[in-house]
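mind reviewing this stuff:

——
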Amino acid sequence: MKHILVPTDFSENAERALDYAINIANEFGATIHLVHAYHTSSHAGHLASIDRVVQEDRDKSIQELIDTKKDQLGSSASLEGRVVKGYVTKTIESAANKLTVDLIVMGTLGSNQPNVFLGSTARSLVKAIGKPTIAVPIEAELHVPTSVVVAIDAHSMSHPTVFTPLVKMVKQFGAKLHLVHVEGDAMNTDIDPKIQQFLKEAKLA
């Protein structure tokens, strides 16, 4: 894992996700790509000047954020930022493909919003971008994971290799991987043989 993308709107949620990404980057010696997307709406005659002001302001903000995080980076990890004009989902999707990122880490609303699992931006990114994604609640504890729980459909998974990025992280962190399949009100421990074989080959079963 060499490239991690972190979308930011400079909110507390996004900064929490960045802190989490730094923990991962330090373990893998990865580069974090911090990306901010903005969109302006104005009359055509004023558009260029408004864009310039907004771009300069956001460039300053992202550099200040990078400067505050330098002390958290390990010797083999790095952090760089970019500000791009465009709609958030399309901009992040384009950046993820261009940078060939291995992982996206983004902030989300967390349990303080009981009726919302993911915010609208995080939800649209997860749906649009075919990359492994970690959504970090604002109240998440920032430490190396020691136990990872994965909810799966244990009866119909045709491509166990979707676990590959997760397996890499689990092995790097020395964590335990728990697969859970819930059917109705009962937890089912029967696992698709293909998944069992994949985990055995990955030396996790």
Summary: Residues 110-117 have pLDDT under 50 and may be disordered. The chain is about 40% helix and 25% strand. The helical segments are 12-28, 44-69, 88-98, 120-128, 164-173, 193-201. Strands lie at 3-7, 31-38, 78-85, 103-108, 133-137, 147-151, 176-183, 186-188.
